[in-house]
Amino acid sequence: MAGDKADVLMMEEMAPKTIEGVAKAFTLHKLWEAPDRDRLIDELSPRLRAIAAGGPVHEHVDRSLMAKLPKLEMISSFGVGYDHVDAKWAGEHGIVVTNTPEVLNEEVADTALGLLLCTVRELPQAERYLRAGQWVNGEYRLTASLRGRRAGIVGLGRIGKAIARRLEAFGLPVAYHGRNPQAGVSYRYYPDLVEMARDVDVMIVITPGGAATRHLINAKVLEALGPNGVFINVSRGSVVDQDALIAALKERKILSAGLDVYAHEPNVPPELLTMDNVVLLPHVGSASVPTRDAMNQLVVDNLLAWAAGKKPITPVPETPWPPRRT
Ligand code: NAP
Ligand code: 8YV
Predict the structure, then answer these.
(1) Partner of 152 for a Cys bridge, out of 176, 200, 243, 309, CB 3.0 to 4.6 A?
(2) pLDDT of 102-144, one tens digit each?
(3) Please, which residues have CB within 8 angstroms of residue 44's CB and are 6 or more apart in sequence?
(4) Ligand 1 neighbour 52 (Cβ under 6 A)
(5) Which domain holds residue 184?
(6) Mean pLDDT of the chain
(7) Which residues are catalytic?
């Protein structure tokens, strides 16, 4: 087998640079182009050792797929969040999963702050007002302010800390909630999310998605955030009970929301589209050319490291290296 290119199954259409990078070093199989996906997977089953996953569709790599691929060793996933991959099962079955952390921290934090400013100061609404030619009829209405607010971050990880630094620069006191206090930070830690929601009037969510955080933000949390509360979600749509959020916005239980992520992307509930107290982005947290380039390169580099018999650059915590079956 020496000299043979390993087969790599790509789950969805990734960026051209990733497709090129994978195709150069491996035999690439494009699942999204297969006329019969099950048949392609059956054909590859005796020899497939690696998968490239992640992208706008978030095509799932679940245990039923992995169980069909007895030679599978490696899943290189695009994006820092990997809730579309059953990493626990992979780790237990000797499969390493990699993601693309760190290279997007500052970009996503910039987006979060941009979204916060747009939401509080209604900047997209004001621009729409101008474009609609309404300025000549009078000034845009006065808005809420970021001044005097206290911020609570849900998930003070890599990106959460980058958001916190920006909030500090904007003069906002920062608190945070997570399962554990973070080392090396002086921000106030709240083990109880509702208690933090009561004490802040800006809440920014930046946890992973998946079962452990599903509907972490519910009606009770939003009610505690209160009628002056600004809610920002740049994590995953699954982290928020979307119906409860829509109800809280409608009933003015919170002031406004800025959202980059939704429960069923790319579908956005029509009710949100008609509200004037929300700012809606189409999951663009990391979506700049240089940051996406760095993420795409890391997808390829992780595969190359694995193919060279080295430790992949960014394995996720659920999948130890060297791999072992448990
Ligand atoms: P990270 O460094 O792993 O940080 C995640 C943080 O969430 C940690 O502080 C963790 O603290 C906390 N957390 C995890 N599970 C939790 C739970 N059940 N309850 C409360 N807190 C919990 O990850 P990151 O690199 O900052 O990325 C975070 C997430 O942002 C990604 O997983 C992804 O979903 C999202 N993201 C979105 C975009 C976008 O385009 N909108 C871009 C990049 C990332 P504890 O372990 O102490 O709980
Ligand atoms: C990705 C993200 O662009 O890294 C993540 O977790 O959410 C984004 O940066 C997204 O996963 C791909 O659509």
Answers:
(1) 200
(2) 999 999 999 999 999 999 999 999 999 999 999 999 999 999 9
(3) 7, 9, 29, 69
(4) no
(5) 105-280
(6) 97
(7) 236, 265, 283
